[in-house]
Fold this sequence. Notes:
Layout: H1 2-10, H2 17-26, H3 31-38, H4 42-50, H5 57-67, H6 147-170, H7 173-189, H8 191-195, H9 200-212, H10 233-244, H11 247-259, H12 263-269, H13 274-289, H14 293-296, H15 301-318, H16 327-362, H17 391-402
Region (Disordered): 1-146, 364-391
Pfam families: HTH_3
Organism: Kitasatospora albolonga
Amino acid sequence: MTRSTTDEAAxxxxxxxxxxRRLREAxxxxxxxxxAAVGVTRATVRSWxxxxxxxxxRKRTLYAKLIAPDPEPAPAPVPAPDPxxxxxxxxxEPAPAPxxxxxEPAPAPxPSAAEPEPVQKPEPNPAPPPAPIPEPESEPAEPxxxxxxxxxxxxxxxxxxxxxxxxxxxxxxxxARESVERAFQLAWHRWPxxxxxxxxxxxxxxxxxxxxxxxxxxxxxxHRHPDAPPTEPARRALFEALLELPPAYRRTLLLYDGVGLDxxxxxxxxxxxxxxxxxxLEVARAAVAERFPELAAASSPAEQSELLHDxxxxxARAEHVPVPxxxxxxRTGSENKARLWTRAAIAFAALLxxxxxxxxxxxxxxxxxxxxxxxxxxxxxxxxxxxxLTPQDLKLQKALREELTHGPERLVPRIx
Length: 416
């Protein structure tokens, strides 16, 4: 155990899953090449880049060296100028003119009179990528906030926009609100992990999208059919075109053209390769362009993306979606669920221990051979008995039972 702990402490640190994918693609390495170099399968490399698992031991060291960024070349040392090669005084900067005779040199300005150097203010944390719904601007979380206050700030900043995004993804208002609240409950349950993530909003968004796109919601009566589409014709056509797309294509289109992620980030969040994400995006745009001539008439993909961004934002802002619950309610619900699951696990463990103890108490302590099956024994005569009484025998038996026997009749019965 000590050796394992020491090895893990000495292992090289790894960047975040999204950064791992970016570094691999920056070196023009495919998943197959990385898998062959480390000695794993392609699925394992994809699992490392999505954050499901992390490499360990020798594989972790090889993987870290493989995706490590190339060191920047050190600047070449500047040689000292040779006096023989120094430019003449005419070519160099003009030397300050000597003061005139009898004139005193001008005194240097005091330090207080000099212009103060501009104080470099620390740049705030990068804002989340643009969403189709303009989210309220909020200041980055100041250091010293408690976990609950930091969670509440993140919830107030991202929850309304995520509800509208999830509504575009599912077409169901109630499911959109439920998905976002469920994702934030999971984020509060794993707050130590979410708090240090490079993109907490992206973490919650991925969790909300995964819950909203679960196929099990079709079995629920309230979420079996989408809500009524918008009444305005253009928005109604866009709404129906989105819902006709397969879920994976719809999610790719919303992340790239709606939220504003780049192609590698979109591929990483949808757990697909970059070429696959590009193919899904192209097919989704072509399907939507069939209902929008202006989208088909766009001169470039960038113009199509900008046009879709505006249309998706207008559609999401125009629809009335339910307001998410307060942050305190979400945190309390997450804590109650965690407490309930903990108690259920304890009860199940106690039940399992009790059943095991009862089995050990009632189980036999020695070996009992099983009873062999019955076999037919030969040479034994069949079991016999008295013959069946005839009517005459029955009549005699009845007469003997009805009449009292006395005198010589006891010795010689009278037979009729």
